[in-house]
Structure prediction request, 558 residues.
Amino acid sequence: MALVRIALAGEGGQGVQSVAEILAEAAYDEGKQTIYIPNFGLEQRGGVSIAFIQASDERIGAPKFNKADVVIALSERAVSRTATYSDSNTLYVYDSGFKVDEEDYPREYKQIIGLPALETANKELHPRVFNIIIMGAVIGLTNMVSFESAKNALENKLGHKFEKNPELRDLNFRALEMGKQMAEKSLQEGGAK
Amino acid sequence: MQANVKVVGDTKKSFLTGNEAVTWAALAAGAEMMFGYPITPQNEVMHYWTRLAPKYGRGFLQTEDEISAGFTVCGAVQAGTKAFTATAGPGNVLMQEPFGMAEAMRLPLFAVIQQRGGPSSGTVIYSQQEVALTTYGGNGEGHRIVYSTATHQEIYDYTIKGFNTAWKYRFPTFLLGDGYQAKMREPLEMYDPEERGIEIVPTYPLLGLEGHIGENREPQHLCNIYSLEEELYDVVLRFAEEYEKISPELIEYKENQCDDADIIILSHGVVSRAADDAVKALRAQGIKAGSFRPITLRPFPQAQLREAIAKSGAKKMLIAESAYGQLDRLTKQEIYGETIKIENLFKPGVGIIDYDIINKIKSML
Prediction:
């Protein structure tokens, strides 16, 4: 697999860093070279939280990057904060639950994708698995890890909670699946345009 | 103390932050005691240490500030305890007093520095702005050993090595990382040092020795007060001579495709990863680039760098760093007299990626 670079951004509490960590663990478990680094400036305390993930079959150089293959912005503020990571090869993803003015779009992008992750979580699943839908979407957009590896990584991370409440396992796996399908569908639609 | 309990049994691949790698390596190296004071981005060294240390019978003390943390390490090592500390930024500034003391008393102090952007209230993020401070800070002559790491594997390897170096040579020894290395996760192999044939240098008390002075042993002078200028002069000259004598065994560096290079990229620490990627990309485009990276910033691999310049016949060198010329100054004083043309890529407090270096190199051709 060639190098995949992902920037995930959202508000504190949206679970951006947790998802990034689980994705990175999944890639590592697949034997890939993987780097995950959170931003940890003062913005962490009341600002946009960003996670930088890279996975590759080969050695990875610098821990950060200028331009990502996929940027996912999960709040309005995150859109303006992350536009800089987008260029003409970038899939730029935001949650369609909030409106983005066209002037806030990044100047360069390959495709802009609005995903109804928040709405799906609230109406069809549970608000708490919003971030797992996003995790599924990352897989749908990049094939960075296999669906099975992602499930295993979730199991490793949340297994102790699943043991106590098996319904949670089902809920998380469904969220992962829905996020993946949502992303794949948007890619097909974008390709058809 | 259960310092001899195996911390890492069989070699295992792990996916950790750099701070975690420091902690596991310190445990595996048999460190008995950490003294520290919280500061980002090294907090997790303390955090993991306080979680893990009790399981292995090791100790921890949070002191009232960094000056105290440094001096408690100075005290503990005199008692023969394998002690260390970790700090960053303004903490590194405050620790220069105890570090200077360790230098003047030849104490086997080991400290991990995770660089952040200045000033003290500046950013808690990444930088390479503590090179000058870590190599030559303090009212002394920089008789220190400084390892600048680039990967988590090296953090693990050089933490183990750092303790050994400190106790073997009795010069204060530092592992110089940064906020990125502290906080990012990447794979590494953790191992038991002795399984790898790495001998752990035994610790020994410097004070309170057995026997009686004048009867069956010599006095142990750990002088930290000099009433005569000449007295201090003699001591510093002796230390300088010893430091220069051991330097060849301590110097470490990495050279990448310098043999036929037209242009050499010099960098240290995490930036060297981008430099190696840049060399690969530039070579693919027919540009003969090479890279040189000092692993020990003190003592600096000056003869090796001069040799790389000489054998390649390179006419140009790019010094790239996330600081405004700290590695640049260090290098120029070491290779004084070389006529190679030097240009700079200074990005103080900001990460450098291969793209930045490639663009800069192309602008130099």
In short: The longest strand of chain A covers residues 48-56. Helices of chain A lie at 16-29, 76-82, 117-124, 130-142, 147-164, 166-192. Chain A touches chain B through 21 residues (CB under 8 Å).
